[in-house]
């Protein structure tokens, strides 16, 4: 299995860390890829697939570190998934750049119908 977008975000977060990430369940021995307990590791059962659409995951700073992160599973199954760290006050430059690329649209390229209203009616 290759590194997915969420695992890349996790590696970047670990590199910036000043102390270990110690959340509930931190004493459980976990698979370092799927973060499930070693006895329940799903890595050998995950089969990548193709989809007509792509996922763009926006994750808060510590979200890639959490074992309950389902975005990791999405990124494992759909390799074209992209993930960005999200901060309302400091958005990722990569995220901002991705919005200007042709062919990318938050709604699949469909525009909502427009209605012309006069006199507020």
UniProtKB/TrEMBL annotation:
Keywords: S-adenosyl-L-methionine, Transferase, tRNA processing. Its EC number is 2.5.1.25. InterPro entries: DTW (IPR005636). One of its GO terms (biological process) is tRNA processing. Pfam families: DTW. This is tRNA-uridine aminocarboxypropyltransferase. It comes from Escherichia coli. SMART domains: DTW (SM01144). GO terms for molecular function: tRNA-uridine aminocarboxypropyltransferase activity. Residues 27-121 form the DTW domain. It comes from the Bacteria. Residues 95-121 are annotated as: Disordered. It is an enzyme of class 2 (transferase).
């Amino acid at each position: 299995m290759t590194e997915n977008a969420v695992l890349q975000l996790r590696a970047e977060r670990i590199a910036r860390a000043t102390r270990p990430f110690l959340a509930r369940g931190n004493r459980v021995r976990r698979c370092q890829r799927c973060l499930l307990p070693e006895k329940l590791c799903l890595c050998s059962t995950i089969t990548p697939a193709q989809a007509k659409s792509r996922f763009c995951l926006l994750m808060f700073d510590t979200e890639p570190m959490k074992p309950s992160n389902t975005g990791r599973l999405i990124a494992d199954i759909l390799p074209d998934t992209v993930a960005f760290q999200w901060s309302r006050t400091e958005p990722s430059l990569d995220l901002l750049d991705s919005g200007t690329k042709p062919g990318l649209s938050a709604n699949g390229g469909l525009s909502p119908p427009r209605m012309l209203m006069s006199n507020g009616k």
